[in-house]
Design a protein that fits this description.
Layout: H1 22-29, H2 37-41, H3 50-63, H4 81-93, H5 100-105, H6 109-112, E1 130-132, H7 136-143, E2 153-161, H8 165-178, E3 184-189, E4 192-197, E5 207-210, H9 216-231, E6 241-247, E7 252-259, H10 265-283, H11 297-307, H12 311-314, E8 341-347, H13 350-358, H14 360-364, H15 368-384, E9 388-395, E10 416-423, H16 430-442, H17 449-456, H18 460-467, E11 474-481, E12 491-492, E13 511-518, E14 521-529, H19 535-557, H20 576-585
Parallel strand pairs: 5-6, 9-11, 11-13
Antiparallel strand pairs: 1-4, 2-7, 2-12, 3-4, 6-7, 8-14, 9-10, 13-14
Length: 586
Amino acid sequence: MIPSSFILLDRLPLTPNGKVDRASIAEQYRLAPPNSIADADIPNPQPQTAIEQQLIEIWQQVLGISNVSVQDNFFAIGGDSILAIQVIAKARQAGMNFFPKQMFQAQTIAELAQLAQSASIPAAQGIITGTVPLTPIQHWFFQQSLSEMHHWNQAVLLEVGKIKPKLLDQAWQILLAHHDALRLRFHPTETGWQQTHALPEAMAPLIVFDLTSQPPNQQSPALETTAANLQTCLDLSTNPLKIALFQCDKSDRLLIIIHHLLIDGVSWRILLNDLQNLYHQLQQGQPPQLPPKTTSFQQWSTALSAYAHSPELLKTLDYWRDRPSPSLPIDRPGSNTMAEVQTLGVSLTIAETQALLQTVPTRYQTQINDVLLTALIQTFAAWTGNSTLLIELEGHGREDLLEAIDLSHTVGWFTSLFPVWLNLESSQDLGIALKSIKEQLRQIPQRGFSYGVLRYLAEESVQAQMRSLPRPEVRFNYLGQIDQALSPPFAIAPELAGATRSPLANRDVLLEINGMIAAGQLRFTWSYSRAIHHSSTIQTLADQFIHHLSQLIQHCQSPQSGGYTPSDFPLMSISQAELDDLLTDL
């Protein structure tokens, strides 16, 4: 029970009402920027075990920061749920085993190290074959009845230096055999779409385009034209992915196009990391080696089908009952297809992003989505005149709710889509608003995971109830930090990779808002139909969103901010008012 370190203060900082300002102490002495006076004067607690030292190195690598302490809170120094999955994957490669929920329960290295287990969840290491039940998000895709559904992809275009095609193709073929979801094929049947695994030898090889014979100023346009054509050439039944190397004068480009049915944002991090490691191994003459497989996509989807009929899942049904959903204002009636889509971008400053990741979470024990969605509903309330908002939230979907499942190094499309009803409660106080939205998000059962299972896999009577619910008109997705996804010489290329979706495809929402942190800066793209909304309308909304987000960050940096909410004390049944009274008494 003796603290691992002691700090001597000349005086205790006080709040305006004379109480000890604990938040100020935490910010100054535990979360100060690297190389600050606080860091120089106050040593971080040192790791006491080999496991703690390994976890420090993993956290530093995943978070991209140095000077991590065993007492630092993962989510207070920039961590999020997606990065937590990467930590778990790297820890398991080092012989330590955790579950995602343990990262939320034990948020420091000192706590997490005590939960490390040497036994891992067994997973089939051979080639997976046979049919695979459709997952909820795959059911969602096919029920869209999209025009040219083969053209609904995800793609990355990388700058890779001068690379050897033979070694690259060898690494790619190893990946296709290792990550079974990349070999999924889709066929329509009388009872609906069916997916099966193809054998590795059925894979298409690397395509090489030599652009060095063209003048340097024509190489980029030629690349972009070819990339745009390749985006349209996938086939769900034979080859729903392509990889192409463009040989250029100074630095080659690598284009990977994969149909969304096979991959998601977390999977890209796994895939690109494996590809880089394999290529470096082959380049150095080392035997190619990948981490052991985790739970297969086939086993996961089969387990979901069984879970769809469990009493535990049905207990969450009441939460998803009908709630009011006022329609968004429109500027004019018009079509809502990909051909009409316009996109604009807004961003925080690097300093604001750093504060959002490291200072803001400690004030109200929040996660980043709590703050982002508070700013979002403030923005929409001013636009619609309504204090409530129904949005569709997109999550990574890799929840550890099922027994004997480990998805930390599994490629596939695991995304969860679920409606979230937010109520601003007409509060003008930023702290009250933030605490209210935080609590509303904490009330979502299973972090939204149950919605898709009920909607697409449960009994028909349950599915019918879910289909009758109002549909959100706004989709929101925070993709996390992508800075650590690539290592030199791999980097995002400046050229365009082509349209990832067919212009004929219908859109099922009016607004799509996607955010990510790249180069240390939080950026958001707002996508809308120009046939329905004026660009000035959406630009005003996007600017107001950044304005509200900046205000929340400034509020959380003030000494007067801070507080707890009932979800911070899960063993207590207490309201916010009762908690406030109790904390005041204490």
